[in-house]
User: Fold this.
Amino acid sequence: MNDQQLLRYSRHILLDEIGIEGQQAMLQGRALVIGAGGLGSPAALYLASAGIGQLTIVDHDSVDLTNLQRQIAHTTERVGQPKAESARTTLNAINPECQVNALVERVDDARLAALVAQHDVVLDCTDNFKTRHAVNRACVAHRVPLVSGAVIRFDGQVSVFDTRVSGPCYSCLFPQDQPFEDVACSTMGVFAPLVGVVGAMQAAEALKLVMGIGESLSGRLLLLDGLRMEWNSISITRNEACPVCGTQHQ
Assistant:
């Protein structure tokens, strides 16, 4: 690290658990963020400001006026612009040293597999089960840890799915062959600060995984009741019969 980097990241370096070695790991780290909306905005902001070396943001959508209540990577003058490109503009202003790749596309299984294989950690910041399961399959196949978050109304959840440590995958918790109804914030609403809370936690878990410090949320699901501001932790076990990560499918 050069003198400017030592100064920029000095508050990290002061932490014994991080130090110069941990910060260097972040600078060499590669994170993939799927979705540049309510969760992806704060997650990407903290990843870039913390010093992740390469950040890829994938989102096919454009900035809408209704997004600005919670999607803090975007601004009023960027309404109509692709979200991925808008987010890149914001991140470059915060930390020009972070290499930000903005992909304006709707990714299929093959594209996801190629992208996941190129990164050290994946953050699922999407809002539908179809995409979540596709991301999960790619992460399991390439043994890349997945940090998943979700928020609707006043409720949030976050977890890590890391099969490298024999943890469960997303499909163990929400089986992909079970019917789930996607609930959109456009119809149900969402309390703006909660996406910031959960998105920031996703960034924290991703950075810990990149540095190899602390204990991740693998095997645990944190649930946040935003009205009462209470957290609950639920244990998740690996389903050996899971069609994605189960032993008979390996």
Remarks:
- The mean pLDDT is 94.
- The chain is about 35% helix and 20% strand.
- The CA atoms of residues 205 and 241 lie 27 Å apart.
- The chain has one domain: 3-150+191-217.
